[in-house]
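Q: What would this complex look like in 3D?
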Amino acid sequence: MELRSQSTPEQIQRAHHSIKNRISKDFAKDKISRMFNGAGISVQGKNKWDIRVHDERFYNRIFLKWSLGFGESYMDGWWDTEALDQLIHRLYTSNTAYKKSNFPAKLDMYKARLINQQSKIRAQKVAHVHYDLGNEMYADMLGDTMQYTCAYWKQAQTLDEAQAHKLDLICRKMHLQKGEKILELGCGWGGFAKFAVENYGVEVDAYNISKQQVEYARKRTRGIPVTIHLADYRDAQGTYDKVAAIGLCEHVGYKNYAALMEVAHRCLKKHGIFLLHSIANNFSTTHSDPWFNKYIFPNGMLPSIKQLGETMEGLFVMEDWHNFGPDYDRTLMEWYHNFDRHWPIYQEKYGERFYRMWKYYLLSLAGAFRARRIQLWQVVMSKDGVPGGYESVR
Amino acid sequence: MELRSQSTPEQIQRAHHSIKNRISKDFAKDKISRMFNGAGISVQGKNKWDIRVHDERFYNRIFLKWSLGFGESYMDGWWDTEALDQLIHRLYTSNTAYKKSNFPAKLDMYKARLINQQSKIRAQKVAHVHYDLGNEMYADMLGDTMQYTCAYWKQAQTLDEAQAHKLDLICRKMHLQKGEKILELGCGWGGFAKFAVENYGVEVDAYNISKQQVEYARKRTRGIPVTIHLADYRDAQGTYDKVAAIGLCEHVGYKNYAALMEVAHRCLKKHGIFLLHSIANNFSTTHSDPWFNKYIFPNGMLPSIKQLGETMEGLFVMEDWHNFGPDYDRTLMEWYHNFDRHWPIYQEKYGERFYRMWKYYLLSLAGAFRARRIQLWQVVMSKDGVPGGYESVR
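A: Here is my prediction, written as structure tokens for the whole assembly.
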């Protein structure tokens, strides 16, 4: 379209609009393509980790919404790649822009500052959205152990073995002794409680707010000394020899790390051990990735050393801090393969967009662990210190 | 003394002074005795950890100057005990007042906030006061290895063995490979550099500001690929495979934890390992114990998890955090016995007050470690993460 002095106001406006559109589309495409190129990723290239764009709106959607746009456009089938985990790994390890920006979800950050997103009532949201999806699909994805946290691969060949080793590692780290009373904050499908009772002769009281998980866990632990409370971890009462929180900390939010530490401290006897198992961050944030927040773990958040360190002060002696983040990469890849293999069963019920969402969740997380961008921590703390010292277990 | 209406002003003044003196002396005696009793410590009692007071001014001196008064009155011979380590252990584990107060050295705290006590020029002070005391006395106290940091007792029977195991533990944790270039920040008498070069075939560049230590270290490492710089750790240049800071962090002060991390980061190649070995605190402080500050480690300070965690962010992935504080209890007791056995050699040169000062230093620190009040950390960090993960070594 050519602009002349005799053009009508409507013509001029239309011309402006068209130019603006073209500039911003080209600008976004240029900027986003550069970001990918910087990480060794080509659009329409031939490597496993390259991107095949099916819809040109892809660039604008990422440019405007970053991680949310990247994930959503994948869910909508606007782009594909052969190895999503490798693509994400490359983005995190090679590209400075992507690395530093951390998909700056400023609105999410402000929201997180203004309200306690993990108040007892709001904490229910993740229980409904995520954990109450249906136990069958989780069983098919997670395997026999129904363990929905990082497995321990040091000496294991299969996922089930690695999960059993993880549970045993936790029991050994807590120095479980026959007859001890254990408090578990957030218990998933009861896997740890069952394992600890059957293998170490302890009693377990557990707290969980997901109805489907609690029902499943109660059935699974019938007849053995396990009590599952359908209640918030902050409602825990009593005095215990040891306390475990396995995969709970990711859900409590940074405003409640102190509450979690205080509950564990209040419920522990002197010199008792508190084991915290959590995905974690290399730096302190007060918000989560917006795509994960919207689709996978509403109100979730990953703690930093500083954040845990400051809430531990005056309560615990830190005895041991173990990082085996790369084991989560392998665990997630196993989950993905299980999920993918069983997908035909769920295809009709959940639909294609769910499949792509779930695949994006598992593979992008695997890539982030592989890039060492996020970590898996087991922190052993003790109330007033273990006299004579605590010996690390691996 | 009786006060009558016809008393002279001088008489009245003298009377007031005497009453005030008596009240405050009794008040202090009552308060301090209660504190000791609360920890199961009797004044003039018969247990090993009880206190025999030789000078009644003892109570007032503690009441007014807390830890400084406690240590100084011991140096002056105002009180004694059979087992100083046990006494301190009891104070830390049983007595709430002593435990919480942390000998509140408010002036020290303000001073620490106002000035950088460990600027390059001020950092020299500890080098002169402490490390330049004379190598002979240290050799007699520390044994053949000349290691002035915590030994590792897991599999050791003697101090020399435990120190060699500590050095080997550090080398194994750093995954030292033949031909690698290692930077050591603060190198003591060169023990680690010598051990690493001789046992792992690496090259070491080290930085230290104590003249006597540097001279000794240079002699000890003549003919092997070790370069000792008489310079501040902040002057380190170049790129290295691995970086170690063994017993330096206690001297740098909380304002310089970030500088220490940045030096290590700047001098490391990608994926390189930084090992930090340090005495540490259960909580964040910006000052040190005033007695230790005055007599033993001028301008020293113990880091907390929060303080190290926040200075690590954006620079390192935390790979492993090992706490073996109770090993320092045993190390200090060995040092004390060595020091005590060799004392006749030094008696004339240093005098009785030095003996009591040094004994108080070693035994009270042993008690604090035994009480789990302070810790010994080895933190392994990596630049951008070790690809595939870091396996903990113990």
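A: To summarize the key features: The interface with chain A takes residues 93, 154, 282-284, 304-310, 312-314, 317-327, 371-373, 375, 382, 384-392, 394 of chain B (CB under 8 Å). The radius of gyration of chain B is 24 Å.
Q: Very helpful, thank you.
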